[in-house]
Records
---
Amino acid sequence: MSVPSVYEWAGGGPAFERLTAVFYGHVRQDPVLAPVFAGMDEHHAQSVATWLGEVFGGPADYSKHHGGHAHMASKHLGRHITEQQRRRWVALLMDSADEAGLPTDPEFRAVFAYYIEWGTRMALIYSGESPPPVDAAPMPQWGWGQTPPWQPE
Ligand code: HEM
């Protein structure tokens, strides 16, 4: 039996769209993050859903239509994101995953959290002093790694 991609397991594009819609709803109300996203453009939630879908093995639409990794990284330049803001971003996204009905199995949530931890730390690096060149890294791709879908024999 072939193993579905993390994207398929999550529920495909609609699942990531639900996730970011819920998440940015919380962000707008959050005292730590609302000021960071005050100027967010109206397509932001959809763009981040498209990005996440591609990272987890869905269609390469962010690379094809939104400027790929270099564009994403450049959006964080000069923002000087703090550790407190990063942690709040992670916490609200994890709460939103529950609210949006993403799968709750340990394997999916481990892979999801792995990318989000890495990605938010990269966002901080790009937002800070002396970021790496935005076009020096490829589009990240996250598979199941150590924790593929598991069922007892
Ligand atoms: C895994 C972590 C993250 C991912 C996947 C991500 C993804 C993205 C993407 C794809 C964009 C560009 C959207 C577009 O194409 O227009 C973006 C922009 C942005 N990100 Fe992130 N980001 C992450 C972490 C963070 C964190 C931790 C913060 C701050 C606490 C942050 C703040 C912003 C801001 C302020 C923008 C610009 C929004 C706008 O002007 O429309 N990001 N992010």
---
Amino acid sequence: MNEGEGRVNAPSTVRRGALGRLARNPLGLVSAAVLALIALAVLLAPVLVSQPPDASDLRHAFAGPSGGHPLGFDSAGRDIWSRLLYGGRTTLSGALISLAVSLLLGVPSGLVAGYRGGRLDGLASWIANLVMALPAMIVLLASRAVLGSTVWVLMVVLGVLVAPAFFRLVRGIVVQVRGELYVDAARVSGLGDARIIARHVLVVVRGPIIIQIALVAGIAIGLQAGLEFLGIGSGDTPTWGAMLNEAFQNIQRSPALMLWPGLALGLTSGALVLLAGALRDVLEDRTGGGSGRARRRAVPVPAAAPVPADTVPADPADAASADPAAAAAEDHGPAGRATLLSVRGLAVGYRLPDGSDREVVHDVDLDVAPGEIVGLVGESGSGKTQTAFSVLGILPEGGRILRGGILLDGQEVVGLPERRRRALRGGMVAYVPQEPMSNLDPAFTVGSQLVEPIRVRLGLSRKQAVQRALDLLSLVEIADPERTFRSYPHQISGGMAQRVLIAGAMSCEPRLLIADEPTTALDVRVQAEILELLRRLQREHELGVLLVTHNLGVVADLCDRVAVMREGRIVETGTAEQVLHAPADPYTRTLLEAVLDHVPAREPWQPRKVVVP
Ligand SMILES: Nc1ncnc2c1ncn2[C@@H]1O[C@H](COP(=O)(O)OP(=O)(O)OP(=O)(O)O)[C@@H](O)[C@H]1O
């Protein structure tokens, strides 16, 4: 029954930490050690030097190394070792300030712009492009003239100039991630934007951000040194760039003075670049030994305490819709049963560039009663998914409901604020998607994906949520729930993944389940098992099910009633028996004829005899 159990490699999904993998990467280890040594030396400067960096004694000008002065003296008789360590403090702190500013500006704006899209994204991208187009050196020179020569202020300006690098990196990744089905699944499960970003999006961008930090730190150090070398800094604090400047002025007399600040800059920048490369290998797992990508977390499915519609605070819209709801249930409820879902005159459109709408669903009426399975069938592009997404309130960007109403358990949901819509999704109504694997975030274990929405929606403790997730895995007939709980999506089969998604959908004890081609991506044997599971859950939990499918075999097998869609309209509705045996609409007949049941089977293929002359 539990197909694919054998595919679970081992319960011990070894999840070595990134630090451990970095320690096994020779380049990473050496560069991290060099950086750590440099950081330690500049931090311990007061105890490592024998005189302050600005203490000058002209009698020692250009003098070589001596006791307590391992690198000798500069042109003003100052201790080079002391200036190198204290200069490192200024240089590295300056780089940290630039980094902090660029991270603070670039990362949150990239996350929000990428995730929300639309005008906000357009505006943020425009600003980022504008800042990137500015010549950094010219802006820094102008800033010095206007804001003064304090190195810290220049570092803040540098941070602003570098921020677009983080913005573009993060935004680009988020735009890709937001289209992932597991993000849609998290949305459908009722998780809010902030939680989705924190859980599913940040985890994807953190690796590239860490790599970028190493690169940008190197750039900031280089630029700052460049400014100081040009003599643009304040000159009252020792920095590696200022040391290079002084050394350059005395290059004829003592070329060795260039060596130490040059070495410090070269070592630090080089180590940062190498560390960035090693981090890239480690975080993207190029060195083998683990499926870094696959190990990215996973997300998921719904979970939530049923949030009865009537517990949501009333607003005037509800009062206005109360009567129509009751009327709809009375007038249109199938066979006199109270409707769970009642769609009336639904029209969905997509905004065109000229401001008009392209209508893709026209005046759809549809009902689902408790304990009833209604099939929504039709050829590809007929509007089934748009209808289902309208009920869930997750139409893609640009799509909107143009007309009509949707009553969920008597409550009008069209026009309901997103917060209240979210309370219904993953609560009273749950969703089972078409492609189970794509709806699980590969970076999280199955258990983690189930537990998070359960905790959010049911307000359970972690321990209780884990127990509930295990119970749900048993409910969907997974033989070894604990093992599956610990597995990553790449370690389970498609059929098991679909069971996991159904478990997630059931976690909120929904009353209406919307299943969009739930078996299409599965092989025939697993399809039958999943259909049987849905049937059992529907029976035992009195679920209303809206089953979106193009498979008339599934309809015959599972559905009580059928609505046939064509070009955005419902062309025929009736009991499964009526529609399949005595279709009234010519389009339904065409659909049925397309199922080759009545066509005589072809002769088995026979190899042709090849006559060899
Ligand atoms: N994001 C979108 N922007 C514009 N039009 C869209 C968008 N998504 C869907 N449509 C249009 O809506 C119509 C109905 O699509 P829908 O996805 O509901 O079809 P479907 O019956 O579910 O097909 P399938 O079985 O292939 O999923 C199609 O003509 C499609 O082009």
